[in-house]
Specification:
Rna Polymerase Sigma Factor, Chain: A; 2 domains; mainly alpha
Length: 153
């Protein structure tokens, strides 16, 4: 008997996943793993780290599939998760203060003042560390993302 899920739309697969159908999730992974891995690799330039980022991305998708609302396509939602996860992996190459502050500022969307409250750092340390972190992240990702890095930072 042919696997009917192979020709099933993303929307239907997502509904099946929300109902607990693990084979539907496997199909979604199979459908998007190659493109997603290429995306992660284009950011990280290391196949092992890209594989880890991909696995983490699909784990996040599985845990958060109930939050997907189809305002954009599933592919768009997944690729955003892959990009964010890959950038977090790249940030691990930075000094810990830089990575922490960049994550708080860009991914958690905290203001400088809120970061000061959370970290107990002075305003000058937050601003200087954010600046240095951006510069170092730009070096890590700049050649990979090209002009797109300017939009992110």
């Amino acid at each position: 008997m042919p696997n009917l899920i192979n020709n099933t739309s993303d929307t239907t697969l997502i509904a099946l996943i929300k109902d607990g159908d693990s084979s539907a999730f496997r199909q979604l992974v199979d459908r998007y793993k190659d493109v997603s891995l290429s995306l992660a690799f284009s950011i990280l330039k290391d196949s092992d780290i890209a594989e880890d980022a991909l696995q983490e991305s699909f784990l996040k998708v599985y845990k958060n599939i109930h939050k997907f609302r189809a305002k954009a396509s599933f592919a768009t939602w997944l690729y955003r998760i892959v990009v964010n996860t890959s950038i977090k992996e790249a940030m691990k190459m930075l000094k810990s203060d830089e990575a922490l502050l960049l994550q708080l500022y860009y991914l958690s969307e905290l203001s400088v003042k809120e970061i000061m409250l959370v970290t107990k750092f002075k305003r000058s340390k937050v601003k200087v560390t954010l600046h240095r972190g951006r510069e170092n992240l730009r070096l890590v990702l700049g050649n990979i993302l090209g002009e797109e890095i300017e939009l992110l930072l």
